[in-house]
Design goal:
single chain, 207 residues, alpha+beta, Beta-Lactamase, six-stranded mixed sheet, 8 helices, membrane, Synaptobrevin homolog YKT6, lipoprotein, prenylation, coiled coil
Length: 207
């Protein structure tokens, strides 16, 4: 079981014309890519960021979502138009633990920063949450979250969680390959890595 990334994101509003949208911004994040080979980590890290921002932009406010892409799973909670928390894990990571964690992060971040501060942020880590670095370590072992899980069981049982693949989340005329090609956040090396890995059916295989 692996927790790869925790990210707090200010998604753009896709309902607005493109020229009027505020750029999607990862406000704060922590990652653990130690399970990948050294030479893969740069490209894998960029794709996890791309995956997180793509699902954050398409998540509905108040809707808990689980989105899969190959062996990666994004657990998503968009609590407001301009605030979304995403935990990216492997397929084996317990969904209830991930949901509890992103709920906890959402509450902590909301208590520390106002919506106006989120709207005004212009760069990553401008609104940092120190506890992210602790969570990315502590929650590598889901058993550490036992107490939180017990408290959340009843609540989680009453919540509807939407499960989707990244392809089904995209709009009818959108294609993941096209989004990759158009992305300014992916380097040419990462785009080439994606295409090569896709051809061999081994994108982001853990080494």
């Amino acid at each position: 079981m692996k927790l790869y990334q925790l990210a707090i994101i200010r998604p753009c509003d896709l309902d607005l014309p493109e020229q009027s949208r505020q750029k999607t911004l990862i406000l704060a994040s922590q990652s653990d890519l130690s399970s990948y080979s050294f030479f893969q980590r740069g490209s894998v890290g960029e794709f996890i960021n791309f995956f997180s921002t793509t699902v954050a932009e398409r998540a509905k406010v108040g809707q808990a979502m689980v989105v899969t892409q190959n062996e990666h799973v994004a657990h998503v909670l968009r609590s407001a138009k301009s605030l979304c928390v995403v935990a990216v894990t492997d397929l084996e990571y317990p969904p209830m633990v991930a949901r509890s964690l992103i709920g906890k992060i959402t509450n902590e971040f909301g208590q520390k920063f106002s919506s106006q501060m989120v709207d005004d942020a212009s760069s990553k880590d401008e609104l940092s949450l120190d506890s992210l670095s602790d969570y990315i370590v502590k929650y590598q072992d889901p058993k550490q979250a036992d107490n939180i899980m017990k408290m959340q069981v009843e609540l989680d049982q009453t919540k509807a969680v939407m499960h989707q693949t990244i392809e089904s989340l995209l709009e009818r005329n959108e294609k993941l390959d096209s989004l990759v090609d158009k992305s300014n956040d992916l380097s040419m090396q990462s785009k080439a890595f994606y295409k090569t890995a896709k051809q061999t059916n081994s994108c982001c295989i853990v080494m």
